[in-house]
Structures are given as C-alpha cells and as structure tokens.
Design brief:
- The longest helix has 36 residues.
- Strand 6 and strand 7 form a beta hairpin.
- This protein has a six-stranded mixed barrel.
- With 199 residues, it is α+β, with helices and mostly antiparallel strands.
- It starts with a helix and ends with a helix.
Length: 199
C-alpha cells in the first residue's frame, strides 16, 4: 500500500515536471517566433535619397524569388494641398495629398474606419474621417466620388485620422518614405539598408 502511494507520488511529480518542460519548450518556440520569424515592417525616411517608383519596381522584381523575404512594400510622398470637392454634394475642402505606390496600409496612417485600403488602381482613393465628414456629412462614403484637381476618384475607404487628407495611388515619381514588410524580423533592417545602398 505504501509502495503504491510512493509510485503515484513519483508519477505525479514526473507528470508535473513533464508538463513544466512542455510549457517552457512552447514558450521558447513562441518567443523565438515573436523575436525572429513573425512578419516585420521596416520604415525608412528616404528624403534626399532620390528613391522613385521605378526603383521600387526593380526591388519588387528582385523580391519575387523570395530570397529577400519581402512580402510587400509601399513608398509615399506628401504632395501639395489640393482643393477637393464632392461630386454628389458639391462641398469643397482643401486637403493634404499623400501619393502612395504599393500597399496603402503600410503607410502607417490611421486605422481604417470604413471600406478598405490597398487598392492600387489610379481612380480610387482613401480619405480621412475629417474630410469625409466635411464633404459628405458621414464616414459611410465608400463608392462616393470626389474631384481632386482634374481627376475624379472613387472613395474606397475612410481612415481614422485628424485633418483633411486624401491618399491616392501613383505609378511614378519620387517617394519620401518607405515601408517594407518582411516575412521575419531577422536581418530586416540590414536588408532595407542594403536595398537603399544598392539602388
């Protein structure tokens, strides 16, 4: 009877130790993933470097083989303020223009309130909440059209951002800021620096 109790006690200690070892191993794997292998975004201020959309297109071609670990990228610049008008209401408002090549959500602007980002078609845009309210009186404005300069743009989304701003996709021109999303953190900053040095 005593021996049976000792065996059960030893078994419970063994199971507790095995459980603790399993938890530690899982934590180590999760920590390693968190530090090195989860998707990672690197941001770079490119002002004065003469980086343009053509350069980014060449980087995308190099990244297609997967060797660089680049998942997606975006480059953007601040354009001059423009008078923006709602086609349906006729309301007008001066707005800052952000010209984006690539994935708009990588620009690290405010979160999305309505609609979507990521449209690279030239006739779509994403506007700030303040601009949506000033032009349309609402943030539920996806599908509405605005006139910016001589272009008619369809609103794809509304971002949570103060001030009047419109983000438009571009296919040419210089970029002032760069955001690159990698498949893992390990070496990401160095890869961005190498890209910038090689261009």
């Amino acid at each position: 009877m005593r021996r049976g109790r000792q065996k059960r006690k030893a078994l419970s200690w063994f199971l507790a130790a095995a459980l603790a070892a399993g938890i530690l191993a899982a934590a180590a794997v999760a920590g390693r993933y968190w530090l090195f292998y989860r998707p990672y975004r690197a941001y770079e201020d490119c002002r004065g470097r003469e980086i343009d959309v053509e350069t980014m297109k060449r980087w995308e071609e190099r990244a297609e083989d997967g060797a660089l670990g680049i998942v997606r990228m975006a480059g953007w610049r601040t354009g001059p303020d423009e008078m923006v008008a709602s086609v349906s209401t006729g309301r007008r408002q001066r707005a800052g223009v952000i010209c984006v090549y690539g994935s708009m959500e990588l620009t690290n602007r405010g979160g999305l309130l309505w609609g979507r980002m990521g449209l690279e078609e030239e006739d779509f845009c994403v506007i700030s909440e303040a601009l949506a309210r000033n032009l349309f009186g609402s943030v539920d404005v996806t599908g509405e059209c605005i006139r910016a300069g001589n272009r008619i743009l369809t609103v794809a989304g509304v971002m949570d951002e103060d001030g009047e701003t419109v983000m438009v996709p571009v296919t040419e021109g210089k970029v002032e800021y760069l955001s690159v999303e990698f498949d893992g953190r390990m070496g990401a900053e160095g890869k961005v620096k190498r890209l910038l040095e090689e261009y």
